[in-house]
Each structure stands twice: as C-alpha cells, then as structure tokens.
Amino acid sequence: MLNKQRVTKNIIKSFSENKGFPVYTAKELQRMYSVFGVDPKSMDRRVFDTESLSHHTQAEVIKLIKMMNIAKDDLVLDAGCGNGAPTRLIAKLCGCKIIGFDINPDQIEKAIDCDRLEGVTHLIERKIKDVHNLDFTEETFDKIFHNETICHWMDKKVALAKLYTALKKGGIMGFHDWVRGYKGDLNDAGGDFPGTYAEGIWFQNNIAETIQLLERTGFTVLHCEDTTDIVDRSLRVRLRELQMSKVYLKGAPEEYFYKTIRYFKVMIGTHYDYLRYNRFLCKK
Ligand SMILES: C[S@@+](CC[C@H](N)C(=O)[O-])C[C@H]1O[C@@H](n2cnc3c(N)ncnc32)[C@H](O)[C@@H]1O
Is residue 130 in contact with ligand 1, taking CB distance under 6 Å? Predict the structure, then answer.
C-alpha cells in the first residue's frame, strides 16, 4: 500500500523528469514557438496544445471556461495547475485574476517562467500547495477550475471539502477528470503503459462515485458529460499531426519528438478500458 508521502513523491517525479513525456521549460517553448512562427502571448491553439499537460484540447478547455461564465472581476482558483497552461488560457480569455497552485515546486517554477513568456504575470499568482492541506480564507473565490488533476487526489472527500470552503456561496466549480475505464483504472493498465508515469499515482473514480462525492460535500451538480469520444478523437488527430510535422523536429530536441509520439500512442491504448474522461460543472 502506498502512503501519502510516497504518492506525493511519485506525482512530483512523474511531472518533473521528462519521464514518459516532455515537460517543457519556458526556454524550450520559446524556441519552439519561434520555429513554429507562433506568438506565445496569443491564443493560437498551438501554444496551449504544445505546452499543456492536458488531454482535452484548447477548444475543449475553452468550452469548460465558457460554461463557468468567468467574469473579468472574478477571483479564480486553478487547483493542480501544473505548468499552468489552462491558467494562462483563462487569463487571456477572461482578463481576470487567478491563483494557480500545484503540489510540485518544479511545475510551479516552470509555470512562473511561462507566465512571463506569455505576458500574463499581472493576472496570475502561483503557489506551491497540496489540495488536501489548503488554507485559503473561507469564501475567497468566485470560481474554482481544475483540469485533469482530481484523478491524483488520494482523499477526495478532504480535498473537495477544502475547495468547497474556499469557494464563495453561489460560486461555480468546473473541471475535467480522468475517470475509471470499463476494465479498471490506470493502475491496472498493461501493455506499454507501465513506466509512462511513476507507480501508484492513480485514484480514478467512476462518474457515479464522483457525483456522490460532490453532492455529499454540498455541491449541486449542474452538468456532467462524458468527453471520452472527443478526447480520443483529438488525441489521434494530434498524434497524426505530430507524425507529419517536420517543423516540430526543427523546434524541439529529437528525443522529445519521439517521446511525445510514444506517449500519445500509449495513452490512446488505455482509452475506454482504463481511462475515460469527464466534464463536470457544480455550484455551492
Ligand atoms: C495531468 S497534470 C494537469 C496539469 C494542469 N492542470 C493542466 O491541465 O495542464 C496533473 C497535475 O496535478 C498535480 N497534482 C496532483 N496531486 C495534487 C495535489 N494533491 N495537490 C495539488 N496538485 C496536485 C500534479 O502535480 C500535476 O501537475
């Protein structure tokens, strides 16, 4: 049985070491964008889709942000923000203030560098925090967003209660989740998957369990949508685009190119059986 410390160590390892997939630095991204001919300050989809750790594409994340109805004077929390691509997208799209936190100091450092590269530092504050130990003042945030991180939270009851406390009454929480597949979760996936991430970092629920957890915390679930077909299709398109892309090879180290192709193939191989995706919207 993995204890909390070991899980945290393995989560940090998975997203720091370019293990199964590249986690780019701002310097590497800057070089890639200059080769691609893309302005990092823009909302060009290639910025988000290159740097983010998200399997939902920019278009799908924008759908979620729009459903949350984020206004310019809202204060937003991005939980488990990683290297911060979704936070920057919210900042560019809505012009509001956002606090993004992650358990991984390395990711936060990369996020801060990328915020600078993309000209959004005036809107974003970054913090190193574990969602299970949040200490924000009660009713601080108008909206809470998270993208593809809840599947790593060991004690969702505690984590969701912390987020609920930090959200204002009437506030909205929107998120994308990696849920269990028809045969199990990613801890059970075989084939080429083992080794892509460090072990024991998956705590995927099924959709009914997540709804129950949200409701027991006090949230009203407004929307719940299975996005597996959408993500499966778009990951296949991204894989094909990458395989055909000569420009990527010019902009990034060759090792990253082949690592990303392998990663997309491996993850597509887990779809439906061990990994499905979901979009949730709920209200306090
Ligand atoms: C798949 S990445 C998604 C990152 C980002 N949300 C995105 O969409 O690009 C999952 C992130 O969740 C973070 N995470 C996992 N457990 C966490 C916890 N207990 N508290 C805060 N962050 C956590 C990881 O460090 C990682 O950066």
Answer: yes
Q: Is 82 in the pocket of ligand 1 (CB under 6 A)?
A: yes
Q: What is the position in ligand 1's atom list of the atom closest to the CA of 12?
A: 25
Tally the domains of the chain.
1
Domain with 72 in it: what CATH number?
Answer: 3.40.50.150
Query: pTM, whole model, 2 decimals?
Result: 0.96
- The CB density around residue 206, as the number of other CB atoms within 10 Å, is 15
For the CA of 53, the closest atom of ligand 1 is 9
Residue nearest to atom 15 of ligand 1 (CA): 152
What is the greatest pairwise CA distance in the chain?
A: 51
Measured in Å, residue 213 CA sits from the centre of ligand 1 at 19
Pairing, β 124-128 against β 276-283: unpaired
Query: Quick check: CB of 58 below 6 Å from ligand 1?
Result: no
Domain span including residue 206: 4-280
Confidence of residue 177 (pLDDT cuts 50, 70, 90): very high
51 C-beta closer than 6 A to ligand 1: no
Task: Give, in order, the Cα–Cα distances in Å from 159 to each of 147, 196, 239, 257, 283.
Answer: 15, 26, 34, 36, 16
* Mean pLDDT, range 49-60, rounded to an integer: 93
Residue 50 Cα to chain centre, angstroms: 13
pLDDT category at 253 given cuts 50, 70, 90 is confident
Question: pLDDT (tens digit, 9 = 90+) per residue, 92-139?
Answer: 999 999 999 999 999 999 999 999 999 999 999 999 999 999 999 999
Q: Which residue's alpha carbon is at the smallest distance from atom 9 of ligand 1?
A: 53
The share of the chain scoring above pLDDT 70, in percent, equals 99
pLDDT at 89 over 70: yes
Q: What mean pLDDT comes out for the span 150-154?
A: 97
Q: Cα separation of 28 and 14, whole Å?
A: 19
Q: Which atom of ligand 1 is nearest to the CA of 56?
A: 8
